[in-house]
């Protein structure tokens, strides 16, 4: 099959096409002349507003406003199952999903048929294989192209997507789409390949917008834009969920900015998650992706913008991930059924946070990743999640009793013994997560994450800066169930630096979905004692 | 606003259009000359195959084959949460959903914005208000048109859809779409308005297909067809769920046939379910729609084609409907939160069966509705559901233990006391459903349904015919967890005729989502005694 650099492309005079520019550099030039944020969206304004607050002094009136579908900053109902979520609010809510998802063993093979049935004849394939040493990933691309070939579809491969997708990648892939007059787009990879494909699709034959910068914000793609071509997204990198979301994150190296596009119309037409692709992955990748998805699901469930629809998906994701992750990671030979269930759990978690948003674990992990490039965000999430859950579960004035009661449902989904006491539910949830993280051998403290790295090193002096940055992270921050003060945020980053919530794992509840109700009944009323197991400053620079 | 009969339409020479025919009668003439099933689909062939079996002798090899996405008759994984579903199978699965759903209070108001943001300027509005005396429905249409008007979109209203959508309705609405050169379609109503809109959208600017007959089957819309216009579906009739599915059922009066179109590409672009529209509905409508949705969710959960994704939706639907339906039906004044939760529950149930399919309650209700026109199918489902669930839950050679264990999850979702015994789970599930049906004052036996009718009357002599027909109902029949023999089917229709499963409601488990685990623990090992409370032949003709 064909793999071409945009620079080497010759025009194809036979193909009817509309080229609003002549080369990738032309696009880049035009992009550079555009104001970095020419159409400041609500999200953008909201972020500026939060950022302009003194750290620790989050505007309460803003706390309830979620960037959702354009024309509505109203927070959706936020009602959960039997229990009321946060305060009683009313209003319409939005739920987003790909119209067609292919899941499970052999999904990739089925995709070939689906693409050809869609009438695709000339397909732009977006991947990052050029920047990967990963032979598996290349192998996936080969298999995909074979399926396309068998189905009678030509593939034009853009393999240059970088690890962090850039505006240059988008411009080059867009040029290639016009050059080859494609009638469909396939992306194969993790987040960045899908993100580039989403941006290319939003710009391809869009008469009103030419550059990624114009798309930034929530639903800022031109009114009246309908996708000109279908987009098929094949996930090869577990847990990222970009194959099913309405989000694209593109880095603008010219302005040193991260551009976030949120628009339901860039949700891929068909998402494809094949369990067989997970079979070849190393255990630590599966473990990290599984816990990352657990963080997606927990934070979506506790989000301010959750709805019964996102709850349904989040709770079942938590059930599947809690029940099957150990087996998926530790079994030899690989436990196909467990991997299948983890694959479905990841999908459900993604569907949930795609509409409900995320919370503080992600805000902090994002801040850490921004400060220390190449730090593995899924490991950071694994460390932060128990601390953040405990913070959410604390009975405080800000959190009313109903909110704490959500932990009763959360605990049940995690297989904790049935309880109606929020306090014991919180305790079991925190310990279950910490125990799972420990069992799948992920790091339990930030200092441990630090120690696993060869070069980049976190510094404890940076904690105040990280905390302040995390509190300005609008996207997960706004939907967060609770907003910490700067002091509280610093405090629990420091805790996460040194302390594992698994300190009591020795006598933790056994996480077992078929647990007997009688077990551990005596511990119900114990208060949750925070034991600080100082790892010492061995790892801290 | 404008309401025109197709016969009275004058051509609009200014509008650019492609008219493959000159009038509705031309379309009908062309449709009539087409073989009723010109392109016999797999579904069609499968049905013929089942129908050609002697009743009661279902082909076992077909039992596992589910009409799913074209190119695959493989049954998806069918794995549930912790428990294995039916036999252990592997394979890819499909999940379908609208890309964007608006739900909750005020969703209709939000839709105006969404339509105008989509760039729609000339919108075909499909409704059945002409055939309705219901002023509420007309009021919804007025409000909708006001939202469109405010958003700058012209509405062209086709209000002639009959109670059962016909090929004539489709032809006339299609003609109107071409005449007015519409760029979008809105349907407002119950199933038939959405079904007509889906068929019109599939044919509008479709260069390869002209008539509904050509679309019949699973994914039989031409390969390469991409919808030319977006479709916004506003549900005004609860429980039908047609606003979010990939199904359309159109009656062909010329050939006296029911045409079923199943294609993911006719899923509406945006579905809209506004809780506020439920506020004006009478209690018995809410009750019937709620129990109909419960039947959707239970049968989807037990379906052969279920996946963890459909399970997530089905289980949460069951939780919401079990917890809130009584309050939604009985509270005075109307309990807005309960109605909201029922609305979400109906959506989740629809999303679930849209991919997982249905079971025997629907097969039997369909057969009864086909025999006795205008019988209320939701009441028939309410009667059949407990009987069918009991049949599914019986330990038999055909159902392995794992399958029966699914009832443990089902019972938990219904708020039954936690149990690990499938037998007591089945008992609690059957009684919970029967109790709910009784509490919301729906009929509990077929003879009671009979008695509530003024004109049409079921005859007990017809039971063998109904049973045989139900077993030939391919669509819910194939995904049914268990296939009865003809004798078994007759038997439980007869049971449903005379006996309420609520016979033991007096000492039934209390359905309470926050039930104490200890309650009713002593009843755990009781065997399920079928008590036949013969209502007598008072109602039976």
Automatic annotation (TrEMBL), chains A, B:
Keywords: Oxidoreductase. It comes from the Eukaryota. Residues 99-274 form the Alcohol dehydrogenase iron-type/glycerol dehydrogenase GldA domain. Residues 287-473 form the Fe-containing alcohol dehydrogenase-like C-terminal domain. Gene3D superfamilies: 3.40.50.1970, Dehydroquinate synthase-like - alpha domain (1.20.1090.10). GO terms for molecular function: alcohol dehydrogenase (NAD+) activity; metal ion binding. Belongs to the iron-containing alcohol dehydrogenase family. PANTHER family: ALCOHOL DEHYDROGENASE, ALCOHOL DEHYDROGENASE 4. This is Alcohol dehydrogenase iron-type/glycerol dehydrogenase GldA domain-containing protein. It comes from Micromonas pusilla (Picoplanktonic green alga).
């Amino acid at each position: 099959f064909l793999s071409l650099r945009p620079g080497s492309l010759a025009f194809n005079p036979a193909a009817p096409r509309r080229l609003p520019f002549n080369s990738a550099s032309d696009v880049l030039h035009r992009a550079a002349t555009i104001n970095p944020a020419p159409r400041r969206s609500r999200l953008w304004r909201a972020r500026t507003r939060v950022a302009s607050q003194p750290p620790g002094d989050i505007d309460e009136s803003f706390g309830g406003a979620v960037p959702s579908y354009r024309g509505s900053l109203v927070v959706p109902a936020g009602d959960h199952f039997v229990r009321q979520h946060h305060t009683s609010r009313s209003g319409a809510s939005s739920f987003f999903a790909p119209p067609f998802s292919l899941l499970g063993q052999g999904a990739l093979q089925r995709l070939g048929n689906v693409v050809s049935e869609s009438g695709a004849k000339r397909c732009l394939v977006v991947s990052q294989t050029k920047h990967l040493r990963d032979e598996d990933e290349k192998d996936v691309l080969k298999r995909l192209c074979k399926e396309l070939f068998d189905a009678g579809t030509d593939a034009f491969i853009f393999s240059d997507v970088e690890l962090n997708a850039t505006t240059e990648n988008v411009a080059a892939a867009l040029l290639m789409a016009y050059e080859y007059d494609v009638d469909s787009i396939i992306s194969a990879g993790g987040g960045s390949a899908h993100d580039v494909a989403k941006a290319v699709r939003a710009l391809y034959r869009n008469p009103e917008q030419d550059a990624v910068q114009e798309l930034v914000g929530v639903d800022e793609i031109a009114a009246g834009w309908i996708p000109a071509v279908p987009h098929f997204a094949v996930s090869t990198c577990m847990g990222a969920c970009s194959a099913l979301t309405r989000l694209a994150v593109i880095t603008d190296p010219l302005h040193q900015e991260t551009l976030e596009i949120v628009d339901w119309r860039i949700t891929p037409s068909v998402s494809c998650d094949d369990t067989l692709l997970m079979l070849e992955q190393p255990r630590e990748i599966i473990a990290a992706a599984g816990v990352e998805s657990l963080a997606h699901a927990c934070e979506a469930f506790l989000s301010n913008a959750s709805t019964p629809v996102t709850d349904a998906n989040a709770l079942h994701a938590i059930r599947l991930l809690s029940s099957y992750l150990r087996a998926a990671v530790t079994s030899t030979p690989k436990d196909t059924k467990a991997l299948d269930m983890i694959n479905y759990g990841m999908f459900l978690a993604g569907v949930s946070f795609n509409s409900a948003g995320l919370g503080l674990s992600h805000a902090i992990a994002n801040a850490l990743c921004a400060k220390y490039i190449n730090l593995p965000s899924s490991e950071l999430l694994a460390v932060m999640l128990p601390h953040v859950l405990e913070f959410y579960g604390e009975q405080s004035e800000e959190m009313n009793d109903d909110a704490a009661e959500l932990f009763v449902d959360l605990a049940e989904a995690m297989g904790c013994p049935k309880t109606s006491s929020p306090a014991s539910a919180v305790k079991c949830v925190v310990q279950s997560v910490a125990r799972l993280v420990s069992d799948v051998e992920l790091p339990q403290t930030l200092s441990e994450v630090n120690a696993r790295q060869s070069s980049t090193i976190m510094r404890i002096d940076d904690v105040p800066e990280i905390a302040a940055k995390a509190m300005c992270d609008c996207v997960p921050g706004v939907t967060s169930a609770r907003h910490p003060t700067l002091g509280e945020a610093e405090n629990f980053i420091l805790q996460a630096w040194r302390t594992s919530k698994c300190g009591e794992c020795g006598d933790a509840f056994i996480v077992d979905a078929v647990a007997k109700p009688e077990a551990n009944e005596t511990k119900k009323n114990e208060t949750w004692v925070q034991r600080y197991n100082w790892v010492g400053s061995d790892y801290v620079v």
